Amino acid sequence: MAGFWYTEKQTDNFGITLKVNKTLHTEQTDFQLLEMAETEEWGNMLFLDGMVMTSERDEFVYHEMVAHVPLFTHPNPENVLVVGGGDGGVIREVLKHPQVKKATLVDIDGKVIEYSKKYLPTIAGKLEDARVEVMVGDGFLHIAESENAYDVIMVDSTEPVGPAVNLFTKGFYAGISKALKEDGIFVAQSDNPWFKADLIRQVQKDVKEIFPITKLYTANIPTYPSGLWAFTIGSKKYDPLAVKEERFHDIDTKYYTKELHNASFVLPKFVKDLTEE
Amino acid sequence: MAGFWYTEKQTDNFGITLKVNKTLHTEQTDFQLLEMAETEEWGNMLFLDGMVMTSERDEFVYHEMVAHVPLFTHPNPENVLVVGGGDGGVIREVLKHPQVKKATLVDIDGKVIEYSKKYLPTIAGKLEDARVEVMVGDGFLHIAESENAYDVIMVDSTEPVGPAVNLFTKGFYAGISKALKEDGIFVAQSDNPWFKADLIRQVQKDVKEIFPITKLYTANIPTYPSGLWAFTIGSKKYDPLAVKEERFHDIDTKYYTKELHNASFVLPKFVKDLTEE
């Protein structure tokens, strides 16, 4: 179809609406409804089960903040795993770190990878890099089968509905801990504090039981519900708020800075309260 | 009317949509179209010329961040002026500071004050306080007629269309400087960096020519365009990033904290770039 307004209901009673120039691809994959569209405001966009996953215009925020916060926190992140993230945006940011020797991507839906390469080339363009291994498979199982393998694990999943529901369980966080090396770090997207306060509270509680250093940070993503996105970081050894100055090196970013690295952990009071309950 | 979805086009090609239970009041005032509505997600809301001004659920962010950043920066803010802000939210926050002896509100549209008192009582409820003087009149003229009068001036205006267009000019900032005491501070809402980059760039440039200390800070407001709102602060003497620890005192807030005071000035790289051009 061409020339219409698409509305995503982000809650039962609130949503965003945006002008679509044309639909580029629509397909019910084995796992979810995949839609690619060319929009007037945000460039090409990927939707899964009707929810905005990424847009060419604002994708940099999410991808930079998932990747750079844990990667600068770890002193030598050589071996990195991305669970989900088939659009390739997190991988693109991971590769900006010269310490990374290998980045493995495990996405359950090969169609997301295929159509991101086709319609989101500025996001997915680094998936063919020599340092990257792309696997189409179940990230939950891959984690369960991995032991002492990764320095940093990033969970770039959809919401806890559909294929991602296992990725928001305490069993998954325990698996992540086992899959990480003894000084490993993981980060997971954790939805937003305005509409999903209970989710953030529960994830913080669960992760704290497994990781000695558990924190929440946020970033502004205009096409995501409420515009304020939360990320949970769990670390075995390194504190994301105690990164040595010399660890930071220049990378090309549009959102992340080393100053913002620290500031993103300073939470609005009502969000801070969620992490302390 | 009752039981419909209202859509605010925040740009030509993007907007928010929300479920309205019922319209409470609709009136073309002498200055703008005033609408009050009861919404399912955000509680009662005020719209001016079709744009969201405030909602009961997320108003605390804007009002706390306008008021507390300059009021904690100034060591002794006794005399405070709010230009616009007829909903009373900024005044409510100003009154949390015991140093404030008098808070003057000048809004051009008495109907905003009248209907905010009626339908947004948790926001407007402090307009009758003994320390508050409410004036219905032109804020631009009030500023022009004031000299060496205020410690802190807060510009809580609509967008630079309609009645607020004069409030985004260099002449207005010069007037504010004159209306402030020799160590005065002002803050003005400055829209958002995603859709109004040029505005932010221009305001920063204009204010810098008049105020030796000019900075930008942001806050997350879900019902405002992009979810990331910007505020320009201009100060003659006191640096908002050099507030002495003992200056902070406990106040009841839901968004502002003294840590967030500082963190809100740490900008995403693309926003920081706007302030340095």
What features would you describe in this structure?
Two copies of one chain form a homodimer. By secondary structure, chain A is α/β, with parallel strands linked by helices. Chain A is built from nine helices and twelve strands. The first copy, chain A, has helices at 59-73, 89-94, 110-119, 121-124, 139-145, 170-179, 197-208, 258-263, 269-275, and strands spanning 2-11, 14-28, 33-39, 43-48, 51-55, 79-84, 102-107, 132-136, 150-156, 180-189, 213-220, 228-235. In chain A, the strands form two sheets. Chain A has a seven-stranded mixed sheet with strand order 8-7-6-9-10-12-11, sandwiched between helices. Chain A has a five-stranded antiparallel sheet with strand order 1-2-3-4-5. In chain A, a hairpin with a 7-residue loop joins strand 11 (213-220) and strand 12. In chain A, helix 5 (139-145) crosses helix 6. The model of chain A has no long low-confidence stretch (mean pLDDT 96). Chains A, B: S-methyl-5'-thioadenosine binds at residues 32, 107, 138-139, 163. Chains A, B: This is Polyamine aminopropyltransferase. Chains A, B: One of its GO terms (molecular function) is spermidine synthase activity. Chains A, B: Homodimer or homotetramer.
Q: What labels describe this entry?
A:
7-stranded mixed beta sheet; 2 domains; Spermidine Synthase, Chain: A, domain 2; about 30% helix; alpha/beta; homodimer; Rossmann fold; 5-stranded antiparallel beta sheet; about 280 residues
Quick synopsis:
Two copies of one chain form a homodimer. By secondary structure, chain A is an alpha/beta fold.
